[in-house]
Amino acid sequence: MSSYSALATFADPAAGMTVSATTGSGFVIRYDTDASDERAGPSPNESLLAALAACASMDVASILRKKRQVPDAYEIAVTGERAEEHPRVYTSIVVEHRVTGDVDAEAVRRAVELSATRYCPVNAALSKGVRVEHRYRLARDAQDDEAVSALVVVTGPG
């Protein structure tokens, strides 16, 4: 079993909400609240979506390389809806993999499916309580009017 750790420290406990979190591997991430006028970093909620994007994209890129499918460009967009009531948890998340280049659509679909259902631990953790929709968009080039878009899988409750 792997073990991870983090330590969060307030920049100024008497004022503001800026927190520096140091990971067990020594990386520092600076967080702030959504309500701050002068934000010093992302909110923890934004970071959850960013972590999901990073985790899923690393999986998909690795799987595509193994399949010898090399896109010209690849990005992932993650959006989430949150409840109005506290603790304002995410109620739904959409993950869209945007792939450009001469790549096989089935290879992209399968890579997204494997990431969502088997490899990405961030998705697995979030899916315990949140509906996560995984999609892809495949375009041959930046001006492709006939890009292919498809829903791959939905993880999480109902």
Q: Could you please describe the fold and organization of this structure?
A:
Helix 1 (44-66) packs across helix 2. The strands form 2 sheets. Strands 4-5-6-7 form a 4-stranded mixed sheet. The chain has a 3-stranded antiparallel sheet with strand order 1-2-3, with no helix packed on it. Strand 4 (73-82) and strand 5 form a beta hairpin. The chain has helices spanning 44-66, 105-119, 121-126; strands spanning 6-10, 19-23, 28-31, 73-82, 90-100, 131-139, 148-155. The chain folds into 2 domains: 1-42; 44-155, 2-Layer Sandwich (GMP Synthetase, Chain A, domain 3), CATH 3.30.300.20. By secondary structure, it is an alpha+beta fold. The protein is elongated.
Short description:
With 158 residues, the chain is α+β, with helices and mostly antiparallel strands.
Keywords for this entry:
7 strands, GMP Synthetase, Chain A, domain 3, 158 residues, elongated, alpha+beta, 33% strand, 2 domains
Mean pLDDT level:
94
Cα-atom radius of gyration: 18 Å
The name of the CATH architecture of the largest domain is: 2-Layer Sandwich
Strand order of the largest sheet: 4-5-6-7
Count of alpha and pi helical runs: 3
User: Given this structure, which CATH class of the largest domain is correct?
Assistant: Alpha Beta
What is the number of strand segments? 7
**General form:** elongated
Total separate domains: 2
The secondary structure category is: alpha+beta
H/E element sequence: EEEHEEHHEE
As a percent range, the share of strand residues is 25-35%
> What characterizes the major β-sheet?
4 strands, mixed
